[in-house]
Specification:
By secondary structure, this protein is an alpha/beta fold. Helix content is about 40%, strand content about 15%. The two termini are about 30 Å apart.
Length: about 325
């Protein structure tokens, strides 16, 4: 019920951008970014079929093939099967994430959380990644942002299909751990209330950041900590807006978010703190969170992440954030 002994450190690499998220990335740039992560000591890599219709897995696997398999931890996701049939990537229905991977491969993606689709998805991912095994498998995006009012029906299919299949594969030693990888807290709360099957961890993207953490603090993180279910934080920079980018929730950031970020930046500058350091260290300060996996498409960004994790952030900075109500009063912060 924990992945702390499995993960090699608090910083991993989220490879969604390698699926040509937001823009078409040259293969050479993508490969150089993965190599930079390796050179900086990162040994946990997360990917998914959804990221560019398999493009992220192909690119990641191509680089990791040059490194010993026993020296890194690899996770991917199930819930979408990639077909040989093609479609217009820009015309896909991705719920609230429309157009996110319009520069990815044109292969058709089918949402399917059944047991058979789960096994097929794993087999296909192994081929794209060029590896013989996966360490962690996440059930991907079974939440409101992709399915709207129908999300509970999708969740029920996953509960009786993907959840039970992954639980069995873990017990058989085929994989080491499983859980859900989502952008909403409600599916995770629901899963914690299940008698069975029991996940080992969750990948929660965008919901435990400097900009959005109230909902997760209320019930999810305390319940996860109590049950020993670890939280991997995805999107610690809130789709990039906390790292100098323009996106929040995978779209152009609205004015109120930009204004909030400017307030945080002003305090960070006053205390001589890098905003990436503040964002990354905040996400990792809760007892339930065990790792963060920011994404990148440039090698230089990896070095920035490693430096941000090690930067000293004074207690006075966190106190000022609380005083200005820029973080919740009960949100844990790093010790000085």
């Amino acid at each position: 019920m924990s992945i702390t002994s499995l993960l090699p450190g608090a910083l991993g690499f989220g490879t969604a951008p390698l699926g040509n998220m937001f823009r078409a990335i040259p293969d050479e740039e993508a490969a150089a970014t993965v190599e930079a992560a390796w050179d900086q000591g990162i040994r946990y890599f997360d990917t998914a079929p959804f990221y560019g219709a398999g493009l992220s897995e192909i690119r990641l696997g191509g680089v990791l093939a040059g490194h010993p398999r026993d020296e890194y931890v690899l996770s991917t996701k199930v819930g979408r099967v990639i077909l040989d049939e093609v479609e217009d990537p820009a015309a896909r229905d991705l719920g609230e994430k429309g157009g996110l991977f319009e520069h990815g491969r044109p292969n058709k993606m089918v949402n399917d959380y059944t047991a058979d689709a789960t096994l097929r998805s794993i087999e296909d991912s192994l081929k794209r990644l060029g590896t013989d095994r996966l360490d962690i498998v996440w059930v991907h995006d079974v939440a409101q942002d992709f399915y709207g009012d129908e999300w509970l029906a999708a969740y029920e299919t996953a509960r009786t299909g993907a959840f039970r299949t992954l639980d069995r594969l873990r017990d058989e030693g085929v994989i080491k751990a499983w859980g859900l990888g989502v952008n909403r807290v409600e599916p995770l709360e629901l899963t914690l209330d299940l008698d069975e099957p029991k996940p080992d961890a969750f990948l929660l993207a965008g919901r435990y950041t400097l900009l959005d953490h109230d909902r997760a603090l209320q019930r999810l993180l305390p319940a996860a900590a109590a049950q020993g279910v670890d939280i991997v934080v995805g999107g610690p920079y809130s789709s990039g807006i906390l790292a100098g980018g323009q996106h929040f929730e995978y779209q152009k950031a609205p004015a109120q978010i930009i204004a909030r970020v400017e307030r945080i930046k002003a305090l960070a500058e006053r205390h001589g703190v890098g905003i990436k350091a503040a964002a990354l260290q905040f996400s990792l300060a809760h007892p339930a969170t065990v790792a963060a996996i920011p994404g990148a498409t440039k090698p230089s960004r990896i070095a920035e992440d490693v430096a941000a994790l090690g930067e000293t952030v004074p207690a006075a900075f966190w106190a000022d954030l609380r005083a200005q109500k820029l973080i919740a009063a009960d949100a844990p912060v790093p010790s000085a």
